Amino acid sequence: MRHNLLSAGSVLTVLEAAARHRSAGDLLVCIAGGPPPGDPPGDPADWPAAGRPTTSGTGFAADLVLYADSPDAAGSEVVVEAMARLGLDAAQCFAYGDRREGLTILRVVGNPRVVGRDPLMTELARDRGWPILHTAQY
Question: Does the pTM exceed 0.85?
Fold first, then answer.
């Protein structure tokens, strides 16, 4: 079973952010929920070889797609391990989330962005000084 970490209303906002990151030459890593499609990936030690440029579930071409069983604790573990394996500084990493299930991922990067109008998420963003990206209402 797969799950989407972003609501439909947030996807356009994240696509615009992804385009800005892409034009800046940033590595785009998509954290997808659920098991990978098709055959399970090999040993996580094979990252990033197991990942390949692909279109993520949100429609942008990611340089690497990683899979988390859930967007909560397991998702943040995947992000932390990916940063370590890829030699990325958390202070230089961005994450975008619009639901409380993604909070653990937002907490482990240096540049969290809350997308949308969820009351809990916007309150936490204001309390922590995180930017809030508003979306069109559908």
Answer: no
